[in-house]
From TrEMBL:
<protein>
    <recommendedName>
        <fullName>Helicase HerA central domain-containing protein</fullName>
    </recommendedName>
</protein>
<dbReference type="InterPro" id="IPR008571">
    <property type="entry name" value="HerA-like"/>
</dbReference>
<dbReference type="InterPro" id="IPR027417">
    <property type="entry name" value="P-loop_NTPase"/>
</dbReference>
Amino acid sequence: RKDSEETRELLKEMSIHESTYQNLQRGLATIRRLPFLVPHTPDNPVKRILEYLDQDINVVLEFGRYTDITAYILVANLLTRRIHAQYRERMEKAIGEDIALPHPLVITIEEAHRFLNPELASQTIFGTIAREMRKYNVTLLVIDQRPSGIDSEVMSQIGTKITCLLDNDRDIDSVLAGVSGKSELKSVLSRLESRQQALIFGHAVPMPVVVRTREYGSPESYKDFIPGGEAEIRKQAEKDI
């Protein structure tokens, strides 16, 4: 009872409504139940990720058996916020001291609607990166099968788009929002083949262009992509991992 009274006094002092406090308690309880969270770790994962990036090594965040959206948002948002802060600090220091700029960084988000839907975009760091971070050498690569689920403000900040065949009008309108020649591009999209064709348009190309994408997964897929064939590809993959 004494603890309860002290809690009420503290909430009153901090002008926090009791229902807000209870919601916070429930949220923290949900986070505490995530089995991969521990009080202390033997190393600093953010520092290690940055070290990999400095060595031009790709970093993939794989959630494995954890399919809960809470785990996705918590981990991805937490790590990306820290990486974002570090990159911003590095860029500002490099400009101020006239030293080498940090390596350009591309943050790729698969199933992007999980992090960039209208309800969450303003609460995660990814919306900020989409809007502001190009000047800090950080770019967002957004991947999704249903682009209509992504916040329209974020979509408007994506400078170059690569889209395969879409059969949903809302998705098509989302991808083509604000693009000149929308009706012509819509017609092109509707005629794309269902496999290995994509339309590229935006800042990276002088005009919209349809391309045939490289086959994925077979030994022949990348034999011309990296000199040396399959052995060199395997060696490069081991280095990246």
